[in-house]
Amino acid sequence: MLLSIIVPVYNRPDEVRELLDSLTRQLMLDYEVIIVEDGSTLSCEREVERFRSLLPAVQYLRIPNSGPSVARNRGAERASGEYLLILDSDVVLPSGYLEAVQRGIYGTRADAFGGPDAASPDFTPMQQAVNYAMTSWLTTGGIRGGSADAMEQFKPRTFNMGCRRELFLRLGGFAEDMRYGEDIDFSLRLIEAGASVRLFPDAFVYHKRRVDLSRFFMQVHHSGMARIALEARHPGSTRLVHYLPALFTMISALCLLSVVGCAPLLLYALLLLVDAKQRSGRWDVAVRAVPASFVQLWGYGSGFIRAWVDKHWVG
Question: Of 156 and 145, which is predicted with more confidence?
Answer without folding.
Answer: 156
